[in-house]
Amino acid sequence: MGGRVQEHKAAKGATFNHVLAADAKALLRELDASWLHRFRGSTVSFDWLEECLKAGERLPEHKFTINYEEEFKPKKAAGAGDTGVSNPAKRSKMASENHKEISGQDGKKEIATGEHRDTIVPEGSGVKKGPNQVACSQSSSGDTKDTIGSQATFDAEEASSGEPITYTPPDLNRNITEIFGKLINIYRALGDDRRSFSYYKAIPVIEKLPFKIESADQVKNLPTIGKSLKDHINEIITTGKLSKLEHFENDEKVRAVNLFGEVWGVGPATALKLYDKGYRTLDDLQKDDSLTYAQRTGLKFFDDIKQRIPRHEVSEMEKLLQEVGKDILPGVIIVCGGSYRRGKASCGDMDIVITHPDGESHVGFLPKFVQRLKDTSFLREDLIFSIHSIEGTDCGVDTYFGLCTYPGRELRHRIDLKVYPRNRYAFGLLAWTGNDVLNRRLRILAESKGYVLDDTGLYLATQSSGGKRAGRSEAIVNCHEEKDVFDTLGFPWLEPHERNL
Questions:
Q1: What is the tens place of the pLDDT at every residue in 2-19?
Q2: Is 439-495 a domain of CATH 3.30.210.10?
Q3: Architecture of domain 309-426
Q4: Catalytic residue at 356?
Q5: Looking at the whole model, is its pTM more than 0.85?
């Protein structure tokens, strides 16, 4: 149920099942009549798609059909009431026949099924478009893409150039997504990853809806929304709150463990131990001698780390890192992944993925890079620093986790630097771009096909003498680009901005 943009010329060779437009005039400004006469699909108003999304199912199309052939008939005299927009109730014979050919007798088929099916958005539709843009609906076999087309459109040239594309869903249901976000943190702090992940999957689906949810029935057929979450949504839209969240927020243990779990480096087990020691506030934790240096650093800059980083600042810091890196090692590739690469308007931290095209010069680069960034006061506090490229251990991946500052400020931000050998870079970039939902799906898919996937490579799984999976082989599958990983696993390719599943 997603949407994407491609160049208009690419649309000529695609298979379409629906053309959506504001009215007949807008339709004919974009597509000539001869093309429409050859078209083997349905021509409908945008209202049809909006009503389908609201209802959570495919609705009959006859009330929304655009009869563009009316445009070729002699116009009535002024004031006679001819607006140039067809009567939705009058469906042309061509459109009716084509609807039968596309949809058959199953009125509840998905809007787009099987192979890629695209939806052209003509000019005059009210949807913002740049040059050479069409909006397309895309469905794939296998895992459902948990995305729903929003008002946002993307420039095809910008996408092909690799520039980040801003991800701006309507998010008309913030009253629901904010509560689910709090539950994610609570369950994560309690060590209940399964429940935490169920809310995590649901949020992107809900925030992309182009309408405000007024009834739980509107989400009954949406992916990731099961009975439990549907009941939560019903309670929120009915009462404005969620009793489960209130229970957690009023429970002293849950509140304290959740708070401690937000400190960098403190996991669920450590948070529970700290609670059992009698600690209840962050000030209490200052007294504990068992905290590591990294945990103490996370505690000291707790408020700083929680502040999100505006996209334009991340972009400036990425350029700074690229300039410093290329001054040390010409040709080095430095990319900011995470929510920034997926197009989000702000980021919780910066995930920097690094490699060098020659496959050798990355060795020993990270210590020099880190030192130069410390000399300029960009990097401030260290959390984790491990070098494996020189020794050839742990797949030769070098890691630095720490805190940085935007030039001229003291506010700390989390930053991760990962340097990969070139033959492992695609896996690292994919993993550190995310999101978590996609990463988990790809790992599960890999396992089902006899592989093991992580940020260092795609490996053949090995089996013990008893036939059970024992681990992975040493050799990795050759994947030079991210798309090679998708293709090897048979998963439809997703551009970075499409990975907010």
A1: 455 454 544 555 666 788
A2: yes
A3: 2-Layer Sandwich (3.30)
A4: no
A5: no
